[in-house]
């Protein structure tokens, strides 16, 4: 690094032209054509199709564990009233929860293109959203099938053919435990009522809508190096409110316990954060969390050089994104712009 006679300016020596790692701008980029697109992403779409088919197949399987449960004590008292809630229709059907989890973020992705105008960003964001939703769904459906649990309306669906006088004829301590063989209800409803843990509604809602909030933060720079308008802060939390409302409705219609909802929410959030970072240069580093990671010719990867800001468009024009003058922040980056003004210059 060379210092000029002007103490107010620090000039960084230009990177060696042979050093691709430090000079990302000179990388050759292929023009995206349908042929290149298919060649680049066909395996991702195949993997999503396979995972989707796998998840759907597991969804229709009979629950794996042979769960046992008590119904009555010897005095005729119901052992677990929390499993005796009435069975009815769910307030938000699972298909609607999944649709909202996709369509709401997708609408914001497309609206953001009014400013960003990038096919690469649309493709990166949409594929990341699909990765989050599909992966989270398969993850939770495996747990439902292999672990599961009794839904709050289990007794109403099971319709056990047993009375208090039958206590002692089952298994376990004092013979009070029975399995689904005492159920007389519809088999499909019983299968579903044995797969309470975790909540699929919560998983889908948080996988899609947390991803939406992260995308909005990256494009609008809600948590950045300046204080934006308050409506951006509200907009960031609006999808999260939607996810909480969808998930919480399951306690009203007696489809899930609170711990099922919590587990589904954690799974969905986990995949939303993972999918966003899988697609974008950062989750929280405001300098780079709007930049899609390279997929076409990714030999050298993304080098976290601030010169990227001069060629990567954010939805915001404040905080330095309009002129590419962003300086210093924690997290991923280690490099700086070629010429940085000092604090004295910034005060002018």
From TrEMBL:
The chain crosses the membrane at residues 42-61, 91-112, 124-147, 200-218, 230-252, 258-278. Residues 126-276 form the Phosphatidic acid phosphatase type 2/haloperoxidase domain. One of its GO terms (molecular function) is phosphatidate phosphatase activity. Its main location: membrane. It is found in: Membrane. One of its GO terms (cellular component) is membrane. This is Phosphatidic acid phosphatase type 2/haloperoxidase domain-containing protein. It comes from Adineta steineri.
């Amino acid at each position: 690094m060379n210092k000029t006679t002007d103490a107010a300016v620090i000039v960084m020596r230009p990177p060696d032209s042979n050093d691709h790692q430090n000079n990302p701008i000179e990388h050759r980029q292929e023009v995206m054509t349908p042929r290149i697109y298919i060649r680049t992403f066909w395996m991702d779409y195949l993997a999503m199709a396979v995972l989707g088919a796998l998840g759907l197949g597991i969804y229709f399987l009979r629950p794996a564990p042979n769960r046992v449960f008590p119904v009555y004590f010897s005095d005729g008292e119901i052992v677990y009233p929390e499993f005796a809630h009435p069975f009815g229709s769910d307030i938000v059907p699972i298909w609607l929860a999944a649709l909202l989890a996709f369509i709401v973020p997708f609408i914001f992705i497309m609206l953001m293109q009014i400013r960003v105008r990038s096919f690469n960003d649309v493709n990166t964001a949409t594929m990341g959203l699909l990765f989050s939703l599909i992966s989270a769904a398969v993850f939770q459906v495996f747990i439902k099938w292999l672990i599961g649990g009794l839904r709050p309306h289990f007794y109403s669906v099971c319709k056990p053919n047993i009375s208090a006088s039958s206590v002692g004829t089952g298994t376990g301590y004092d013979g009070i435990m029975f399995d689904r063989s005492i159920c007389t209800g519809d088999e499909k409803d019983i299968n579903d009522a044995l797969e309470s843990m975790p909540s699929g509604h919560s998983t889908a809602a948080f996988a899609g809508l947390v991803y939406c909030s992260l995308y909005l933060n990256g494009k609008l720079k809600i948590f950045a190096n300046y204080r934006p308008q308050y409506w951006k802060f509200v907009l960031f939390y609006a999808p999260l409110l939607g996810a909480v409302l969808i998930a919480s409705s399951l306690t009203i219609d007696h489809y899930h316990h609170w711990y099922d909802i919590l587990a589904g929410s954690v799974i969905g959030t986990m995949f939303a954060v993972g999918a966003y970072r899988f697609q974008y240069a950062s989750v929280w580093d405001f300098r780079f969390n709007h930049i899609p990671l390279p997929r076409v010719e990714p030999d050298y990867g993304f080098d976290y050089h601030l010169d990227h800001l001069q060629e990567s468009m954010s939805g915001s024009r404040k905080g330095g994104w309009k002129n590419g003058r962003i300086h210093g922040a924690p997290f991923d980056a280690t490099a700086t712009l070629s010429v940085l003004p000092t604090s004295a210059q910034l005060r002018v």
